[in-house]
Amino acid sequence: MRRKISLAFILILICSAWIITPVSVSANDSITPVLVDISFKNAKIDSTFDHNVQEYTITLNDNTASPTLDSYALKGNADLFINYLYDETNHQTGLTATLQYDTGSKIYTFTYSNPAAYVQNGNNKLSSIYSPYSELSPAINDSDTVYKLYIPSDLTELTITPVTSDINAYCAPVTLKLSADQTPKITLTCTASDGNKKDYSINIKRVNKTTEQVKAEMQQPDYVSFVEGTRLFEKPEFIMVFCSVAGGLILIMIMFAVTKRIAVNPYDKEEKPFYSSIE
Asked: Which of 76, 107, 195, 231 has the smallest set of CB atoms within 10 Å of its CB?
């Protein structure tokens, strides 16, 4: 009788433990990153952003200029890529934000609610370049056409999204697979709506930092640059050597000037020659 009661008691405990044990969340649900929020310069999303909704319209402040990414917030480990949408005439109609992570990706589409009418003009300039975990130097401007794009030492997939100044212009994005030591030179061609073209040369440079280190720096609230201080002319040892060499040259010049000033002149300008010239 006692044995039957003991078995029944054990069965009750097992059943109770199974009932009160919380249902575990699947591995995919627990690690799937989420785009918490996103905003754009020169545009406002027409509704509240919800990571479960993937289709939106946005209204441009200046409907002749391309909007650019302003800020975003992520939950989990993922990369965010921005691309622009064009119709068959290469007229910009919207943009996409692609959340890419190890187990998949999620694309959010933002369609312009008030794009400018297609009007031909000669604006073939870029207003910026978007490239995750990269830094452009100098910043895009109207006069320079040659730039340096700094990337982490271990980056093997480079995505460059050019942003045209005019919404009617077109410049194709670039995606490259790189080996760990590759530093190619890239040409971006911006074509105005009237067909005029402008080439931008992008020289890829690597810094002595990994992608994870760059990510960590970019997440800091006071982040400004991951390149500053890593270039040769900014390194302390280079500055010390340069200052030493410059100081040495200045000292030599001063010593030379002083020596020349106090050196004895072996000739007396007022002394008359003791011989006469032969006529």
From this structure: 195
